[in-house]
């Protein structure tokens, strides 16, 4: 009997090792990738039908592997069955993202953003992913790339959350400019955006919270003045601001320099059920001229 119990205990210990999903480095040709961005993919053991897809670009001096360990996306993916892309910057000097070149700021022109867009397109082809539930989030340089991806590829991303980032194009070289009728005339699809920034951030100055709000309120046509301000939301001490009446743009300014990954609520079934009667983070909505 004792031996049988020991055997069962051994099997119980081995089971998670045998069945647990792992981060996988993708070596296949996944499409146009002019700067040689690499990526890892996390596919949980149980993937939901028509699953959401999350892209999580890392911070400066970070890696895809560190991003995989740093935030709780893996556990949420295991619970809710969504897939995660973890890109790795090709710039070995600092592992930051290219958020300034004209190529990366332009749809399908090149730069790191095109490599990441190719990862998304490849994953949409290879896995049962809902193309209307592709999301992006990141912190610091990853937050900057989040804004770039939302701005350059609104056809791919339904929504995103930037943590301690800067507006898309903030670091563009002098003289950069592209005329685009869809943008200038307010046509085409628009992503939903949440902006989080600690009011005492000593690395990325808090003024960039207001700058990101200015950027996206102009793009989304919500106006830069909040239509609603809610204290102690989503946590005590935080201030939530809402812009416009369609749930397209929200900001949260917590005290201190560290922010919590509350955007994970958008992947929580409980939250999604609550949002059924109001603005939802689940689906993109096209904006008509």
Description:
This protein has 289 residues and is of the alpha/beta class. It has one domain: Alpha/Beta hydrolase fold, catalytic domain (Rossmann fold). Helices cover 29% and strands 20% of the residues. It contains eight helices and twelve strands. It has helices spanning 2-19, 64-70, 73-80, 111-126, 141-152, 181-184, 207-220, 269-274; strands at residues 23-25, 38-42, 51-55, 83-88, 129-139, 159-163, 189-190, 192-196, 228-231, 239-243, 249-253, 285-286. The strands form two sheets. A ten-stranded mixed β-sheet has the order 1-2-4-3-5-6-8-11-10-9, sandwiched between helices. A two-stranded antiparallel sheet has the order 7-12. The radius of gyration is 20 Å and the shape is globular. The model is unreliable at 1-19, 174-180 and 266-279 (pLDDT under 50).
Mean pLDDT across all amino acids? 82
CATH fold label = Rossmann fold
Oligomeric organization of the protein chains: single chain
Radius of gyration of CA atoms, rounded to a whole number: 20 Å
Give a quick account of the main beta sheet: strands, pairing sense, barrel closure. 10 strands, mixed
Q: How much helix, percentage-wise, in residues?
A: 25-40%
What is the element string, with H for helices and E for strands? HEEEHHEHEHEHEEHEEEHE
Note the topology.
Blueprint (H helix, E strand, L loop, with lengths): L1 H18 L3 E3 L12 E5 L8 E5 L8 H7 L2 H8 L2 E6 L22 H16 L2 E11 L1 H12 L6 E5 L17 H4 L4 E2 L1 E5 L10 H14 L7 E4 L7 E5 L5 E5 L15 H6 L10 E2 L3
Parallel strand pairs: 3-4, 3-5, 5-6, 6-8, 8-11
Antiparallel strand pairs: 1-2, 2-4, 7-12, 9-10, 10-11
Keywords: Hydrolase, Serine esterase, Signal
GO molecular function: carboxylic ester hydrolase activity
Protein name: Carboxylic ester hydrolase
């Amino acid at each position: 009997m004792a031996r049988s119990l020991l055997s069962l205990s051994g099997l119980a210990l081995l089971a998670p090792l045998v069945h647990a999903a792992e981060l996988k480095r993708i070596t296949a040709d996944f499409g146009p990738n002019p700067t040689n961005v690499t990526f890892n993919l996390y596919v949980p053991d149980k993937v939901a039908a028509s699953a959401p897809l999350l892209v999580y670009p890392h911070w400066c001096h970070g890696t895809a592997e560190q991003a995989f360990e740093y935030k709780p996306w893996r556990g949420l993916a295991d619970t809710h069955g969504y897939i995660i892309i973890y890109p790795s910057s090709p710039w070995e000097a600092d592992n930051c993202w290219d958020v300034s070149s004209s190529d990366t700021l332009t749809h399908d022109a090149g730069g790191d953003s095109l490599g990441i867009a190719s990862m998304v397109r490849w994953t949409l082809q290879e896995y049962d992913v809902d193309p209307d539930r592709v999301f992006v989030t990141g912190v610091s340089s990853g937050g900057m790339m989040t804004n770039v991806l939302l701005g350059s590829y609104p056809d791919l991303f339904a929504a995103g959350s930037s943590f301690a980032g800067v507006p898309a194009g903030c670091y563009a070289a002098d003289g950069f400019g592209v005329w685009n009728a869809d943008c200038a005339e307010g046509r085409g699809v628009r992503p939903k955006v949440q902006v989080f920034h600690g009011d005492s951030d000593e690395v990325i100055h808090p003024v960039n919270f207001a700058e990101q709000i200015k950027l996206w309120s102009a793009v989304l046509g919500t106006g830069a003045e909040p239509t609603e301000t809610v204290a102690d939301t989503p946590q005590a001490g935080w201030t939530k601001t809402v812009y416009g009446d369609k749930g397209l743009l929200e900001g949260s300014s917590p005290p201190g320099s560290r922010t919590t990954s509350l955007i994970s609520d958008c992947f929580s079934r409980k939250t999604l059920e609550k949002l059924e009667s109001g603005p939802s983070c689940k689906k993109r909505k096209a904006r008509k001229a």
